[in-house]
Amino acid sequence: MRGKLGESLSSIEKFSAPMADATTSSLEALKAFSLGIKTRQQNGDAAAMPLLKQAVALDPNFASAYAQLASVYGNLGQSELSAQCAQKAFELRDRTSEPEKLYITAHYYVNVTGEYEKAIQTVQLWHQEYPRTAMPLVILDYLQSSLGRYEDSIQEEHEAMALDPDAVIEYGNLAGAYIATNRFDEAHSVMRQALSRKLEDPSLHYFMYVLAFLENDAAEMQKNLDWAVGKPGVEGGALGAQADTEAYYGRLAKARDFSRRAEESALHNDEKEPAAVGIGYAAYREAEFGNAEAAREGVTKSLGLSGGRDVQILAALTLARTGDAARAGAMADKLAKDYPLHTIVQNYWLPTIRGAIELGRNNAAKGIEALQPGAAYELGSVQPFSAIAPAYMRGLLYLQARQGAQAAAEFQKLIDHRGIVANSPLGALARLGMARAYAAQGDASKARKAYQDFFAIWKDADPSILVLVAAKSEYAKLQ
Length: 479
Prior knowledge:
single chain; mainly alpha; Serine Threonine Protein Phosphatase 5, Tetratricopeptide repeat
């Protein structure tokens, strides 16, 4: 009919999104929202953001649009804006239908209070009441992955894909869960399914990049990096991923260059919090590599850009690793006060930060005790980075206590769970930790082999990196 009335094919394709089931008094806002939902399903968060922002501009009381924006901002690393939108949606939830209320409430628990178990209960109720709706299963998958429950996540994502096979987020989530469980062939299969449906999303390219890293496919990594260049909301994250890869191999100068480019890209696109997170993460990397001054400079710069939750987490952890126990402790106390119910903050990051503080104080026993709450959550896919950080910190504390066997068991977790650690530099440093753990046990043969494994990864590393200089000195003493 529209074609017969003279509307062009391109216009019909652009504006053919079905109206979403959402509550608003503005037809124009509903149109923008519906097109935003369709765009998000097919092309991802960054592409959908302008349409969802248009929807709330047209109707400032559009609760569901705020909730969608909360999810989009959260996925793009902007936790402050995510929390603001989720709070606004929650305040307006009485204007909405029952399914919208459940969606809004789930995002409130995730993006504002951080009560993941309450969020799980909410989406499970949503799924029970509306079993033909895919979205509660998608959210449930995200939550289960965040808590390290990947088998549950995989099952739920398969159910979601059966209900809505054209939602691109489902393919990225499922591929991520397969990668986290080292099931790389199945992850490839999911990617092929998405591409066969002509779905396009930054998360797919990110997981293609990660798979390529895990399989030593440099050409495929470069292909996915090239795809991201020039795309707002995407380029910075891709350049940050490449910075991680360079750091994993000890190429610190190159890592710093990619981090600088990621920062410039984010700031150019007015993404202050992602820029601050990237700077903060680069500062943490400097701390783990032994460069305390550069690390502290990065903390100052990142906090000058944003006071977001992830920025604070990285700053506290970095300060702890540079021996600034007073500032790290104050920041940890602030995080505990500001996020008293947040599952990940309370059970993953605060134990890690406090463990690092005690490591700096040469108080291994107290640090190991502080890390106990992290054990149940340490395999989770968390923000601002996933690398089994509690286990890594516990390994360092056991080394300090000269408990080599226990330290080796912790570092082995990072080696065994390659799909979770991926290209994080902690994956390489865990090899060095393993070497030191064997040396602490008096097993010179195994220690030499572990040092050699680390040196093989860092064969092209910048020779002046302090942790490498120390490792070479330790290895020489074993000969």
